[in-house]
Design goal:
Layout lengths: L1 E5 L11 E5 L9 E10 L2 H8 L10 E2 L3 E5 L5 E4 L2 E2 L12 E2 L11 E5 L3 E3 L6 H4 L2 H15 L7 E5 L4 H12 L3 E6 L2 H8 L4 E4 L8 E6 L6 H6 L1 E9 L12 H6 L3 E4 L5 H14 L5 E6 L3 H10 L5 E5 L3
Parallel strand pairs: 11-12, 11-14, 12-13, 14-15, 15-16, 17-18
Antiparallel strand pairs: 1-2, 1-4, 3-5, 3-9, 3-18, 5-6, 6-10, 7-8
Helix pairs in contact: 3-4, 3-8
Bound molecules: NADP nicotinamide-adenine-dinucleotide phosphate.
Length: about 325
């Protein structure tokens, strides 16, 4: 079958080990199902894998990808949940794994997943839209709702404007009725987030108010500003550290203002189902940077690796 996979690991040049080619069809263990992938989407995670973060030289070749929508073995239209784990909250299972870490990922004609890892695709939602939700959008949803406990008519700061998690958080927080502030180093991106209903500011700028929840995926470059911008009792929710993972924290603010610094990773199957319900009930759509044919996979990865994306990069498996 067709597959986009890591053939080798290269920490400095992630695209060196990227292959758009052929791989054997995946095994389908007892209790699993096979999904014919109609559309998939890329994440920073795929670049981390090619760099050897979470994937070792012994594990390649490995099919990449966490996001997919398609048709399961029973003919149902489904969205694939990428977190494979046990328990009520599988994100807390110490043995949990994401598709493409231990088991082959979604950038292929077929992907095998545990039966519980498929969620019905809402009727009327395109496969290319549906493929955007399982990773970046699910992460943003859990950060805002479950971990961030965003209050009604609350306020949110999203650090960094263009990333998949950041754009998802901006759209979701606005749809939930929050006042949304977004920072970006880039004037074009600041203009684009204003069109999503947010107020945009230069990175590090003083905001009109201190916020209830900060969505932090940038890391070292913005963390001090996140702490300064959080109101007493507010929450800084961290799910990534693109600019560096060693941040400086003014602990005086953390204790004096009783702030919470909260880690967050992906989400549960139930949260993915709840997210899809919210998307349908509010009528929002994913922000898509571009849709590429499966055979244009390398160009899609080059775009992601270039760092100048705004929203999700999607692969349409029909071309
Ligand atoms: N834990 C999870 O479950 C999970 C899930 C998904 C993603 N993640 C992680 O979350 C992070 C974000 O991923 P993503 O794909 O959404 O976005 P991304 O492409 O990594 O970029 C996010 C934003 O970071 C800003 N940025 C990057 N370098 C910066 C710097 N040196 N100084 C200031 N700002 C900088 C950019 O904003 P501007 O250019 O607008 O300033 C960019 O739009 C990644 O590290 C990813 O691995 C984690």
């Amino acid at each position: 079958m067709r597959a986009i996979y890591a053939s080798s690991i290269n920490p400095d040049d992630p695209l060196a080990g990227l292959v758009v080619g052929e791989r054997p069809e995946p095994q389908v263990p007892e209790g699993w199902t096979i999904v014919q992938v109609k559309a998939s989407a890329l994440n920073h995670h795929d670049l981390w894998s090619l760099r050897g973060v979470g994937l070792s030289e012994e594990q390649v070749p490995m099919i990449l990808g966490c996001d997919a929508a398609g048709i399961d073995a029973n003919g149902n239209e489904v969205v694939v949940h990428a977190v494979i784990g046990e328990g009520e909250d599988e994100t807390l299972d110490p043995k949990r794994t994401l598709l493409s870490e231990k088991h082959p990922g979604t950038l292929a004609d077929l992907v095998a997943v545990p039966k519980r890892n498929v969620v019905p695709k809402p009727a009327g939602m395109s496969f290319t839209d549906a493929a955007c939700f399982p990773t970046a959008w699910l992460t943003a949803y859990r950060m805002l709702v479950t971990r961030g406990r965003l209050p009604k008519e609350g306020s949110v700061l999203v650090q960094g404007a263009g990333g998949g998690v950041a754009t998802a958080a901006t759209v979701l927080a606005h749809a939930m009725g929050a006042r949304v502030y977004v920072t970006s180093r880039d004037a074009d991106k600041r203009e684009r987030v204003e069109a999503l209903g947010a107020q945009a500011f230069e990175s590090g700028a003083r905001l009109p108010e201190r916020v209830d929840v900060v969505i932090e995926t940038v890391g070292a470059a913005t963390f001090d500003h996140s702490v300064k911008s959080t109101k007493p009792g507010g929450r800084i929710v961290v799910s990534g550290s693109t600019s560096g993972h060693q941040a400086t924290v003014d602990l005086r603010r953390v204790f004096f203002l009783q702030q919470e610094i909260i880690g967050s990773t992906m989400g549960t199957r139930q949260e993915l189902a709840d997210l899809l319900d919210l998307v349908v009930s509010t009528g929002i759509s994913p922000i898509v940077d571009g849709v590429y044919g499966f055979t244009e996979g390398r160009a899609a990865f080059e775009r992601l690796n270039g760092g100048d994306v705004f929203g999700k990069i999607v692969l349409d498996h029909s071309r």
